[in-house]
Amino acid sequence: MLLEPIKTLSIESMKTNTEFGKSIWNGWTSIIDKGKNEDIARMADAIEDYIPLLYDAMRTYDVTADEQDYELYSSRSGFLTMMRKEDKKLLHSEIDPMWEGYEHAELLFRPEMTEYHIAGCDLGYLAYQISCISNGSADIYIYDIDERRIELAHEYGVIDWIPQDKQHVVLSEKKEIEKSLVRAFNESKAVYIEKWFKQLYFDLNDLLSRLDAINDTRLYLGQLASINRQRNIEKIKKNIDEYIENNRSSSWMVIAAGPSLDDRIDIIKEKRSDSKLVCVGTVLKKLLDLGIKPDIAVVLDPLNRTFEQVSGLNTDIPLCINACANWQFAEYYTGEKYYMDRADIDNVAIMAIEFAIMAGAETVDIFGLDLAYPSNHTHASGTMDAAEVSDTNLVKVDSSDGSEVYTKEEFLTYIESAEEIVSSHNNITFVNYSKHGALIKGTKIAD
What we know:
The protein is α/β, with parallel strands linked by helices. The chain is built from 15 helices and 18 strands. It has three domains: 61 residues, no CATH class; 141 residues, Rossmann fold; 210 residues, no CATH class. About 1% of the residues have low confidence.
């Protein structure tokens, strides 16, 4: 991917300093040769020596392009930066826009991601760095309202360093960009809104601004999850497969923490003797207080505060800990601990359903999976996050009872995930005991 830019830089450098231009090309071919010979240590040393040479080459050229609306000029590193004349707003760093793009790409990148959707077409450093980190495998969609800004990106930027079949630049109206990004977000694709783009076109009450706030949280949680994963895998010695081997059952109850759980406690007690029971960590204390002992609980959330779900419990109930879950579960929980390494799961109730499937379920009775706010309540009573919520900034979805119910944008993804699980396991009967929660297509609605 870097071959053409390096070749161009070498040729341009030769015009003013032949030896310097040759050294750029020879340095690059040396790195490639060491890589082919799998001499990783020497390759790393060569790259470290080569980077300053590239910066020296870039600094040789001081470029200024005085456009009608934008001024483009060389940053300290040599890479071009861009400024809006109207308000003197910089779209990139004046020091090193390529490094700035790399730092943002590092935060965004996930190995499992195949698509990245970026609102705001500047000179393309972020998009290019994502392409590099993904080894050119990711499709990158870049949306903008300003046609001239897109033209400048192609003329002066690095967007065309991205493989053509992976580069998708879209000129569109604000509303259409909103729809595209929300759709990508709900499909769990990576979404990033350039700060300058948001400042220019969106206010705090816009859908896209709210989406951006959710997305920032998702990125933060992703970083936290990486730290937790490393600690958990070192601490927890047993894989969940070891538990499942001796605890398979054709009938499982899955207990989530939605407010509808409060209406179904008697049914759970009636069915308990005939079914095994997996619950989310949020309701473990509540169930024990009600005299209901789960076979196993599952936890997923990476935040420190979520350990309060089980803090103070002295129990022998096994705990299935997703590798990204907060490290305190592995460190302090008193019962037997098992890990499930599933980075693709981002909702603990979905994790519990996946567990039941792995454990041989032919029937899965699901309780408290509302994925919505029936009666404006967030969680079952007596759980750590139980609260009332207003319907401001919420959206309506179809409910299990045939009406509509309020939910939040983030839950749309979870609803789709649940529906995908149900549709891909036609041999399993999924019974939904949430009367007034979000409709999950494919489940049987219990009376």
